Amino acid sequence: MIKVIVIDDQTIVRAGFAALLNAQPDITVVGEGGDGRDAVRLAAAERPDVVVMDIRMPHMDGIEATRRILAAPAAEGVRVLVLTTFDVDEYVYEALAVGASGFLLKDATAEELVSAVRVVARGDALLAPQVTGRLIREFTRQRRNRPQAPAELATLTARESEVLVLIAGGLSNAEIAARLFVSEHTVKTHVARVFTKLGLRDRAQAVMLAYESGVVVPGGADG
Predict the structure, then answer these.
(1) Same domain, 71 and 19
(2) What is the pTM of this model?
């Protein structure tokens, strides 16, 4: 059973999301809250698998709440799915930067929300290339002080570097396997090694690092 917390300052929206998720046979909502403070408190108390997190909220926004939740020692395994009204939103970029596993537009369908929670719960990132790629390119272009590439990048093998680039392109393990003509199990091994060497939580952080360090250069088609 996937345990979920729903955080949104709009009561009707929050109740609707909670009711929808609770209606699924494999999902249970273990807490609801109206701001980031509620999110931090409930995450510590309930240890959910997924926090469905609005970004713009009073008292404490979703970015700070995400940062605090994921910094807690007990947060291992907790994933944050952020909600936004706009597909290109600097707040979404910052949420991904502090560790959110992906984002979903608030006008997504019921099926898309349920699917997103399941995707994030199993440890994958919800990163639609046509939206997230544009988002990341826009804000990496605007950042004046791009951090230097971490020294750990030099520890990646040529194949691991190739896998990192493909992750940043939004490809799934199955798609990477097809591209490289290897088994999906081999890809999973490469991905695990990339994450370990670079100290990454998930694919969302891998995408951020690839763009910010210059492994992937902003530009190109959105697809």
Answers:
(1) yes
(2) 0.74
pLDDT, tens digit (0-9, with 9 covering 90-100), for 12-31: 999 999 999 999 999 999 99
Give the span between the Cα atoms of 162 and 159, in whole angstroms: 5
The per-residue pLDDT for range 20-63, each reduced to its tens digit, is 999 999 999 999 999 999 999 999 999 999 999 998 898 999 99
Q: Which domain holds residue 39?
A: 2-126
Assess whether 27 and 112 both reside in one domain. Answer: yes
Q: Are residues 116 and 189 in the same domain?
A: no
pLDDT value, residue 172: 82
Whether 86 and 194 share a structural domain = no
Q: Token digits for 39? A: 């999110």
Q: Residue 73's domain is classified under what CATH number?
A: 3.40.50.2300
d(CA 165, CA 169): 6
